Amino acid sequence: MEKREFHVTAETGIHARPATLLVQAASKFNAEVSLQYQDKSVNLKSIMGVMSLGVGQNAEITITTDGDDEADAMNAVAETLKKEGLSD
Amino acid sequence: MRAMLKGIAASDGVVCGQAYRLVEPDLNVERRTITNLDSELNRFHQALEAAVSDIETIKTRATKNLGADSAQVFSAHIAMLQDPELIAAVEANIKDKHTNAEAAVADVTTGYEVTLQGLTDNPYMQERISDLHDVTKRLTGHLLGVTLPDLALIDHPVIVVTHDLIPSDTVSVNPKYILGFITDVGGRTSHSSILARNLNLPAVVGTQDATEQIPAGETVILNGTRGNVIVQPTVDELATARRAMQERAANQKRLESLRHHETTSKDGVGVMLAANIGTASDLPAVLENGAEAIGLMRTEFLYMDTDQLPTEDEQFDVYRQIVQSMAPRPVVIRTLDIGGDKPLPYLKTKHEDNPFMGERAIRQSLAHQNIFRSQLRALLRASAFGNLRIMFPMIATLDEFRQAKAIYDDERSKLTTAQVPMGKVKVGMMVEVPAAALLADRFAQEVDFMSVGTNDLIGYTMAADRTNQDVAYLYQPYHPAILRLVDRIIHAGHAAGIPVAMCGEMAGDPIAVPLLLGMGLDEFSMGAGAVLKTRELIGQLNAHDLQSLVETALNSASTSQEVVTMVQAAVPGVLQK
User: Fold this and answer.
1) Cβ separation of A56 and B121 shorter than 8 Å?
2) Higher local confidence (pLDDT), B566 or B346
3) What's the Cα-to-Cα distance from B311 to each of B4, B282, B378, rounded to whole Å?
């Protein structure tokens, strides 16, 4: 299992476009990928789950990946966060 | 049943064909207890697939028309339909409670809606409820055996019948299959009409009840020149309509021979014919119709078809593409004209009782300078790639123009310091507020060019909202009061040695063109579909002779109708069509 924390820098938080890209990135892997924010955890392959968290600017989020390709899944998610300007 | 509908002639031409109803079907869901679980689950998955396939088609069309960025929202819609949690929840609902699929979908999506509504500190996410609605409707439609109509899903030639078209419908149009538009509401200058004229498709708007009177697949004749629609026409009527279609095709061919010609009157006065555009997807029509410039690019779409402010880079890409494709021909780009009547969901705009007289256009730009400055920087960077002109909308006072110009100068000098390449840029104004029209001689001392925005100038002068059908009759482009204002602006410009353009619908209106040519208008900018017709018309007119027509119309006409009669008498034959 891999676990990594991110700080959301984008002004709009995780809105529809990056949420879609994050879900698309996570869905490419077998590993279970989850997003934790405050006391809630959702499946990062579920766009409704991600949007329902309403992650705003300056949020601290934790991504967890668990499965045979967990390392690749984590890298893909981290890269998407960075590319979309969501997190450093 | 045979019927004759009357409406407003919004875009010329006669066409016959089958009706395609762009009307939301009844999507009411009834709750049932089901016994065959497997077949219900199967039905759910088939509907999911059909809905995804619809959205893929819509997304492909949007990408083609507007580029990948604008199609992004459809990727989110597809992700919703492929959401493993959503699918599992619906399946569980079917299996555990023996609920039918329609009701199970409604229950699950309502649950998500409640959650999104609860995100009160994140209004942006609350906005996504409308996306969830769109997706749910499409999925429910397939479960009920009906496809939610969409312009992008049309795959054979049809006449579109709808309540009204909205600006974002442009995204879905495939001109190959759309023969024309019939709408319930709207006037000559509403979005439906502008869209139809841009695409050069016949249209009748404001029929009140076309969507109630015309069943799907019914044969109709649409007469966009006269403003009527015949439902279930007779054999004779169909034959006449087909002849008119052939004539139109022949006309179109003749006009196309003028594509690469300059625009000159019979007596050798040259003018510039330009096109109005809203997005980069309008560019092919501009070039096909032989426009010599872009006289107005509206930038609102960049801000409206998205869920956040466009970045400077995103804007730069669009402006550069347009400026570069037209180079060395001029491109006039108007800074953001938005306000209370067209609020942006991601900007917190105050409620205004009277948005048309509220903080819109340049007033909004001066009040929210970060948005304005980022647009100006994007424009200045794009200026290196061609012949760019920047135009400020809704200027009422000289002070507003000076403030806007000072901000422009400030951004320009910052970019110069940063050694960013830029081209020469002319900075001008729209004249659409009557106060500015009356004081045009003072403005002409300080601006590089003026462009008359007739849609708003007429609206503000006559104090009538052109989209309000009850007062739409007051939208009178040939009214002597309007003509006097336009003439005053043209004279003020010429006295100061600057060019005067017109970028409203009036510039392509065959009754107005002889008057404008006689007044000495330098540039006519219109929907691309009107460019060739206007070029042909100007070629038949004698500009010097028209000066006496202008004198009479300005000095002795009291009504719009008198002006029309004078024009028709002065240029017989030309306007008989």
Assistant:
1) yes
2) B566
3) 49, 22, 9
